[in-house]
Amino acid sequence: EKVFHSRDHSDAMNDIRQAELITDTDTAQRFLSKYGFIRDGDDPQIPAGQTEVSLSLDLQEGGSVSRSSSPDLRFISALKEFQRVSGLPVSGVFDDVTKAAMNKPRCGVPDQDEELESAEQELNETAESNSTTTHN
Amino acid sequence: HTHAAANNTEPPGRKQRHLAALLRSRRRRDASEWKGHMAFSKSLLKWRLMGEGYSSQLSIDEQKYIFRLAFRMWSEVSPLQFVEDVDSPLEDIDIRLGFGTGRHLGCSQRFDGAGREFAHAWFLGDIHFDDDEHFTVPNTGSGISLLKVAVHEIGHVLGLPHIYRSGSIMQPSYLPQDAGFEIDWMDRKSIQSLYGECKGRFSTVFDWIRKEQTAYGEVVVRFNTYFMRDGWYWLYENRNNRTRYGDPVAVQVGWHGLPSSGVDAYVHVWNRKTDAVYFFKGVQYWRYDSENDQVFTEDSDGRSYPRLISEGFPGVSGPVDTAYYDRRDAHIYFFKGSQVFRFDVRMHRLASSSPQKITEVFPAVVPGNHPLGNLDAAYFSYSHNTVFLLKGSWFWRMVSGRDRRRSASLPPNGLMPRREVEQQWFDICDVHSSSLR
């Protein structure tokens, strides 16, 4: 049970842990990965031969992102996808509006899902050949 | 496990081949294009609030009340019905709900504490709520509406994905609940694209007339459309293309004195001399007191209701399939099997030509496209200013005066080709009897 001492349990409310907020590109990347905008095994790597600084310089124009961030193209496309579906300006920049949107209370079900057509077809074929398969 | 299964050196069994297939074929689906999948192949689903998953902030009654309401809201717009089941073995329960914090209920996805993620759902029917969140019951202060979150997560379990449309209950981010959120037209069509539209025959359909006096003493006449099916009824809001939120309701609740199993027919005899509403059931009928919203206990001669139809309407014997009053000729049309009986209310007797075949009195405009008989309802609609004959999931609209002015060749009282009831009157859905108020 939640620890409390007072008769009306009012002190039980104060030991609630707070969720980690999205504050920078690292936490933003984890958010995008968790909710399917960046697929598993899709984690943005800094391309070989590209230094972090030069990469962020290329992307500096027009963006208000601090020099320390090190987005790469996959991270940017995932960020843009999130911005698009959230109805935000699609800038590809991890800006305050995007940060606020990421910190909103939300459902834990991923936004992106993998399409399983070919697998589903195979399952269907199998289902037909095995009439005892139950569907849940 | 997934990777391990795929790299298994032994000849893969059927399960391994599937997992391998799953890996090879994964392609990210654009979030906004996916319409979801039909998660259940049956229409009656059992749910349970897990004993080990009670909220530490809301009473058990509050939690169950909200979940019952959340399931009812989906049932009101889809062919699905839900019933709480606290007895069956767990494996028979289709949807399991529970609260937890951090690592919870054997779930693979931790909760993150107050803020951000408040709940999640798994396609095999598990819904978890983060007990660190401050969930609230309807209409009580700030916090996250448990009802809204529950409706969202149940949508996932039924197979709906996130939907990025303002107004959709399936938006991923939580929007503080406006006064009374409801499942809107588009979300209804989304769930119906998975489980189909609500169909079914009706016992009767009618427009009920009410007279109101304005502040200036004028009498204003209003009507409401009602659909009745056995012991339940819906008020249908024509301007909104939907039933009243919260319907259906038990007939006994709204129509005092009528039989709890519902009625066969409704007739409103309304002319210069008479304004009388009648309900028919089996061999009996009642007159209804619209002013005081209850059946009359006796008629003007002191005879108590219900009365025999054959006494009140000589020449007509119950049970009737349905009936309606036609103000043009001041006759009640009683339908029974393939026949129709025309009763003259002024002379208080059956028309000499009665009974006649329905096909004779109401000919088909398109040969062969006719209900023939055994009607469910004959409904004069003030919205459409014509009569509809309903049978099963179909209806036939009677040729109206306006139709005949446009095309004089149309036969009087002719029946236009049939159309589906749910294409004219939308989302009239049953709910499980356990969730009737």
Protein architecture, described:
The complex is a heterodimer of chains A (136) and B (437). Chain A has 5 helices and 2 strands. Chain A has helices spanning 25-34, 52-58, 73-85, 96-102, 117-129, and strands spanning 106-107, 113-115. Chain B has 437 residues and is of the alpha+beta class. Chain B has 9 helices and 27 strands. Chain B has helices spanning 2-6, 14-25, 60-75, 146-158, 185-195, 251-254, 309-312, 358-361, 401-406; strands at 27-29, 44-49, 81-84, 95-100, 117-122, 126-130, 135-136, 144-145, 204-213, 219-229, 232-237, 242-243, 249-250, 265-270, 275-281, 284-289, 294-295, 307-308, 322-326, 331-336, 339-344, 349-350, 356-357, 377-381, 386-391, 394-397, 419-420. In chain B, the strands form 6 sheets. A 5-stranded mixed β-sheet of chain B has the order 3-2-4-6-5, with helices on one face. In chain B, strands 9, 10, 11, 12 and 13 form a 5-stranded antiparallel β-sheet that branches. In chain B, strands 14, 15, 16, 17 and 18 form a 5-stranded antiparallel β-sheet that branches. In chain B, helix 3 (60-75) packs across helix 4. The two termini of chain B are 47 Å apart. In chain B, 38% of the residues are buried. The A-B interface holds A 1-2, 12-13, 16-21, 35-36, 39, 81, 85-87, 101, 103-109, 111-119, 122-123, 126, 135-136 and B 14, 17-18, 21-22, 24-32, 34, 39-41, 56, 101-102, 109, 111-121, 124-125, 132-134, 144, 149, 152-153, 156, 161-162, 164, 166, 172-174.
Write the layout of secondary structure elements.
The complex is a heterodimer of chains A (136) and B (437).
Chain A lengths: L24 H10 L17 H7 L14 H13 L10 H7 L3 E2 L5 E3 L1 H13 L7
Chain B lengths: L1 H5 L7 H12 L1 E3 L14 E6 L10 H16 L5 E4 L10 E6 L16 E6 L3 E5 L4 E2 L7 E2 H13 L26 H11 L8 E10 L5 E11 L2 E6 L4 E2 L5 E2 H4 L10 E6 L4 E7 L2 E6 L4 E2 L11 E2 H4 L9 E5 L4 E6 L2 E6 L4 E2 L5 E2 H4 L15 E5 L4 E6 L2 E4 L3 H6 L12 E2 L17
Parallel strand pairs in B: 2-3, 2-4, 4-6, 7-8
Antiparallel strand pairs in B: 5-6, 9-10, 10-11, 11-12, 11-13, 14-15, 15-16, 16-17, 16-18, 19-20, 20-21, 21-22, 21-23, 24-25, 25-26, 26-27
Helix pairs in contact in B: 3-4
